[in-house]
Design a protein that fits this description.
With 188 residues, the chain is an alpha+beta fold. The chain is 16% helix and 38% strand. It has 3 helices and 16 strands.
Length: 188
């Protein structure tokens, strides 16, 4: 019993010692991914409308990474490495990702992680992220859903877990996926 107690203390301590940087304005984790609300969003050189427009985004739901905060402005990094400032009214927390496969290969879509191939999606398409396990993400593209390898997405972190239902370990057993569930939760 004492060994279990000590192990629990070590696990709790480990989860609290992984230093997270929090935004000054929102107190949310930085960096973090969000997406654009509109198909007309201006990226500015600095955190004010007085700064010139550096770039205009014309695709709604494009994922961007928040790397800093200043009042109502968020400094972001995009898929192409552009950095600049967006007003907070232009972003939303709903998660999307961009297909980022090596070379020019299409992204393979499966009916379940390590399951049957049910389709392909081309590079640089924007997908809605529904759920992410340790190595796989359930995505929605148009009216279709499926599972893709997380390594092929820009807009989710390597060890990030998203929207896991409490019954996911049971699903993993049914699917026959050998996932170390505790390592998934530690990566949060």
């Amino acid at each position: 019993m004492i060994k279990i107690f000590i192990i629990c203390l070590i696990l709790i301590n480990t989860s609290f010692t992984s230093a997270e940087t929090l935004g000054n304005e929102t107190r949310l984790k930085i960096p973090r991914f969000v997406s654009l609300k509109s198909d007309n969003s201006n990226l500015r050189v600095g955190p004010s409308e007085n700064y010139p427009i550096k770039l205009r985004y014309i695709v709604a739901n494009t994922p961007v990474e928040i790397i800093d905060e200043f009042k109502y402005w968020r400094k972001i990094n995009d898929y192409d490495g552009n950095k600049g400032w967006l007003h907070k009214s232009l972003i939303k927390g709903k998660r999307f990702a961009i297909v980022n496969t090596p070379y020019q290969e299409d992204l393979q879509v499966f009916n379940k992680p390590k399951g049957k191939n049910i389709g392909k999606i081309g590079k640089k398409n924007v997908l809605e992220v529904k759920t992410c396990l340790m190595n796989w993400c359930k995505i929605k593209y148009g009216k279709n859903t499926g599972w893709v390898n997380k390594l092929n997405l820009w807009g989710v972190y390597e060890k990030e877990i998203i929207n896991i239902p409490f019954y996911q370990p049971i699903i993993n057993l049914i699917w026959g996926i050998n996932l170390n569930f505790f390592s998934q939760w530690r990566g949060r």
